[in-house]
Amino acid sequence: MTGLVAGCGAKNADTVSKSETAAESSAEESKQAETEESKADETKADGAEEAYEPVTITLNLERSGLGENVEYTFTKKPSAVVASGDQMADFFFDLGLEDQMVGYTKGSCWSTVSQYPARENVPQLLEAGKGISNLSKEELAATGCDFLMGWDSVFSDKNFGKEFCDANGIAMYFPYVCSDQATFEDLYKDYETLGKIFQAEDVASEKIQAMKDTLQEVKDTLGEDVYQNPVTVFAYDSGEDAPFTACQGMPGDIIKLAGGISIFDDIEAGWATPSWEEVVERDPDVILILDYTGDISEKKNFLETNEFTKDLKAVKEGKIYSACCSDMQGSAGSAEAVKEIAKQLYPDKF
Q1: Rounded to an integer, what distance in angstroms lies between the CA atom of residue 60 and that of residue 178?
Q2: The domain boundary residue, chosen from 147, 174, 201
């Protein structure tokens, strides 16, 4: 400012001197204001750090024979999440936590119906179709990961076990929803837990309520009689020598809420591999193909030509439907999966 005024040459020396003094005073005040603002920002940042409410969780390693349970206490929000598969990644996209992600793997069980633009901005660590077990320990550590979410098997010693995770500052998290006894209540618990850990509790609550509203809508539409007399469902995941199928757990709960019941609901596990003879014996009303990649034609053709299934009632009547595999395991789109399955089972009610 002083140079600009002096350069004009229209002021006397006294005026210039006063102008210089005022400018210096103004500059000093501006500098002081900037310093105070900077301190305020630092204080605000410190306050945000201090405001983090510690979150303690118990990781149930015992349920999969991975060792004794582990207790974690988070004292700050994780900032470098890696999610194993679309099922896990969708939790973070749904909660708006993509900025905390440093990568994910798509795996073989894709999220075929979810639409999250943020997915394009998060590094995909492996080509689609490959699970996280194809990622080396060195490659995972190189991402700076401090929070890893996946199925129990992800944390076995041959993959990313407790010893490795501890040594690299990685918190392990496998969802409640992956247990053999899981229901939507466990899915809600995962949302609540992640909401607390990542300071996204309000968003988590909104998402939970939206799921509950969707399920209530389906229940009201179908009516009690449907739930008293559900159609029998063979949920075909994969396998030719023997079928890998959904029984209880989260997939079983989804089928029940859609007005059906798995023909293997008597097996106390989320997933199992019975025989084709057992499928024939139970002769389902409906077959539900679990969609891995958006293309179910190969599985459908197999069921229509396989010697064990080609004469099933469901095949002869053309009642072969599909559902997103990722959502059937328990994820952001699980409530919508209930609705979509219900529409296929009871089209006249929608």
Answers
A1: 11
A2: 174
